[in-house]
Write a sequence for this structure.
């Protein structure tokens, strides 16, 4: 019995048929048959060639008005593979997630614009029939887990107040395998050792040096966690769906009406996270891959291999009213993807500090950090202070442990911290709260994109922070000369008061209100 093929497949594994950009070249690629208008079903019929293959193509936009996914059902003698673009077919890059309903059925999300290809394999020179249909599915329900910090590390982050020669001497004196400059202006350097024990010993030695301001373990933090899916976006328009409280949203629709016809400028927003998958139709023209960077793999393109960053970015800036998945908050937000978390959703403090500095240098107006842990980092604190001096607003998720203490960096004096509310306008049980909390925003059961084209409901303060980032960037788009301090003041003053009257540690200044924030903009 054949299974669906998933993951990255090397050229030749699925055969040597080469797709063409013009159908007349004789590849045999045929258009999928038209669906029945009532049943939304059809049958792919044909005959396998001498290699046991048959190739078809389809255009996502053909199906968007009637559903969100195509479901293909083959029998045990056949195998079906779908490619999300022609270039992926040429390179034999198979779509990575096959949601197997049974051993012979798969569901493919209609997230991409352009042309997709489907290849069917079976017994050579024999006829086949593969049924398929259009379905409307809600986003998946997946858990992203709790935030945390891993303290053990074989690297140190050191702030050196001395010269570059002293940096080299300190590296050699403490037997560092290598040293790496994080930021020359701030004097931040990373020393790496062969073992954790060597790093701990070096930490004690470096702390005694007069040319060292501080030294800390480079520990890691965790990611906190007319459109077809618009009806599921209760955070934008809560009508009481699924038992929620009507109006427990960010007043998005009223805000859209208020700004209709007003001039807006494009605003650069940095998402410091797991990267972004920029290929979705909803991200067309919204992602500045040229300004981003992958600090995990040390390369230019910050591609999402986890899903967290794409989910955050969708909340902020997904294209609206294009019949694809969802609506982002700010139509003029341009996302700078900065990857500091790996495919396991963990990242080093040094990379997070680098990501903040990179965002500032790329002229981001707002930074989203949906990352946190229990331990503070002076290197990150220095980077946040630098962002503050440069007039950049840094918005950080409060953490997901349900504790009366904010995670770090949300509790930094330089961060604007955001907790989570649910569809009942109550603080989410997982949301950290306490001293330093600035605002709350919807963060529970929030639909957005993953890294592989699917949409999913995720819960976490990670989802609350980008709601605030979206509105903050909207204020910048309406008034480019506004200062970060003025944006903060408007967000606080416009918030809907929840909990105890006035400021309180459970809800901060209240729940985000996009319409009132725009109304207060002078």
């Amino acid at each position: 019995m054949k299974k669906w093929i998933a993951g990255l497949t090397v050229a030749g594994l699925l055969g040597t048929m080469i797709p063409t950009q013009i159908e007349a070249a004789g590849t045999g690629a045929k258009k999928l048959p038209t669906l029945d208008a009532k049943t939304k079903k059809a049958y792919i019929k044909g005959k396998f060639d001498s290699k046991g293959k048959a190739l078809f193509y389809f255009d996502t936009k053909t199906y968007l008005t009637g559903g969100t996914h195509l479901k293909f059902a083959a029998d045990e003698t056949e195998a079906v593979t779908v490619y999300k673009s022609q270039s992926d077919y040429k390179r034999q890059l198979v779509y990575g997630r096959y949601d197997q309903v049974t051993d012979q059925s798969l569901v493919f999300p209609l997230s991409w614009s352009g042309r997709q290809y489907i290849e069917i394999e079976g017994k050579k020179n024999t006829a086949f029939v593969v049924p398929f249909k259009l379905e409307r599915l809600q986003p998946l329900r997946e858990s992203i887990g709790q935030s945390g910090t891993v303290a053990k590390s074989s690297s140190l982050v050191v702030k050196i107040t001395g010269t570059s020669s002293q940096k080299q001497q300190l590296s050699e004196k403490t037997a560092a395998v290598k040293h790496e400059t994080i930021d020359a202006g701030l004097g931040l350097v990373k020393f790496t050792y062969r073992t954790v024990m060597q790093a701990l010993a070096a930490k004690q030695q470096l702390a005694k040096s007069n040319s060292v301001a501080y030294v800390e373990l480079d520990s890691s933090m965790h990611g906190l966690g007319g459109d077809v899916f618009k009806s599921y976006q209760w955070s934008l328009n809560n009508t009481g769906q699924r038992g929620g409280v009507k109006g427990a949203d960010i007043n998005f629709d009223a805000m859209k009406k208020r700004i209709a016809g007003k001039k807006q400028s494009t605003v650069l927003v940095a998402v410091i996270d797991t990267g972004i998958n920029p290929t979705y139709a909803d991200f067309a023209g919204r992602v500045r891959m040229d300004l981003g960077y992958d600090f995990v793999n040390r390369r230019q393109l910050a591609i999402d291999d986890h899903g967290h960053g794409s989910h955050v970015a969708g909340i902020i800036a997904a294209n609206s009213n294009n019949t694809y998945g969802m609506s982002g908050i700010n139509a003029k937000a341009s996302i700078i993807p900065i990857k500091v978390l790996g495919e396991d959703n963990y990242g080093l403090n040094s990379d997070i500090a680098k990501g903040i500095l990179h965002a500032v240098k790329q002229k981001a107006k707002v930074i989203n950090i949906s990352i946190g842990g229990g331990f503070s980092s002076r290197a990150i604190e220095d980077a946040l202070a630098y962002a503050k001096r440069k007039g950049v607003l840094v918005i950080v998720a409060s953490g997901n442990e349900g504790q009366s203490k904010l995670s770090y960096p949300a509790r930094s004096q330089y961060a604007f911290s955001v907790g989570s509310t649910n569809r009942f306008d109550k603080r989410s049980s997982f949301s950290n709260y306490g001293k330093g909390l600035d605002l709350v925003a919807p963060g529970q059961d929030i639909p957005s994109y993953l890294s592989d084209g699917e949409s999913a409901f995720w819960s976490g303060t990670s989802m609350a922070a980008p709601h605030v980032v979206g509105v903050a960037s909207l204020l910048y788009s309406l008034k480019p000369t506004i200062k970060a301090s003025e944006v903060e003041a408007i967000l606080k003053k416009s918030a809907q008061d929840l909990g105890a009257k006035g400021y309180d540690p459970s809800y901060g200044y209240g729940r985000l209100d996009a319409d009132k924030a725009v109304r207060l903009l002078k």
Observations:
- The first strand starts at residue 30 and ends at 31.
- The radius of gyration is 25 Å.
- The longest helix spans residues 461-478.
- Residues 1-26, 99-103, 144-151, 226-230 have pLDDT under 50 and may be disordered.
